[in-house]
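Q: Here's a chain of 243 amino acids. Please give me its 3D structure as tokens.
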Amino acid sequence: MNIKHAVVALAFGFGTLVMANVSAGEVEDRISERLTEAVPGLQVISVKESEAKGLYEVQSNNGDTIYATEDGQYLMTGDLLKITDQGIANVTEAARADARRQTMADFGDEGVISFPAKNEKAVVDVFTDIDCPYCRKLHDEVPQLNEYGITVNYYAFPRSGPNTASFRKYESVWCADDQQAAMDAAKAGRKVADASCENPVREQFELGSRVGVTGTPAIVLEDGNMVRGYVPAQRLAEGLGLL
């Protein structure tokens, strides 16, 4: 169940909860326990105090972020915004980026199909689908990205999911003797010889779901921020401060 869909039901379930003087750790444990009991299948990744006094930030395995009051009675979905001297800051998105960066680091880059820059200045991790038109458009600009000093690491995210033609196509690319040449051919719409081997395509696909990928291409920057959709090479390089 999506955690947002459970909020109304949870509000009734928490109505009788009364808080005593408890430690912060006990509060976090209680919120986690209550949510896990109330939402079948939910795995609470973390509960911690947010920047907003009295609100706790809850990260779950389905990528949702919600906020709970200390007594666990009230839940809030959506992004938490903060007024700063520089304008409006999205506190929730900053937390997502940090969690995404850590998740990507924990997973590592072993098994990616990489197009490295000779004079590397930045690295982007791109969740891609062989058959996605805008993924192909982005791939056409990989040589230009490399010229700007940007290494492109591809992670598999066949949008149709496992056990589909697109998924098997990515596996064939990954299992090819020359992965880069096979990726070039597949992105150009050419036939890639069927191949099978032990591969990380499913694990990379599941990783994408964990870090919030909902469409392709999805470009994860080194700080954990995500650029959703196609971005021209020059604009991406400018955004990374390389031009």
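Q: Can you summarize the key feature?
A: Residues 91-107 form the longest helix (17 residues).
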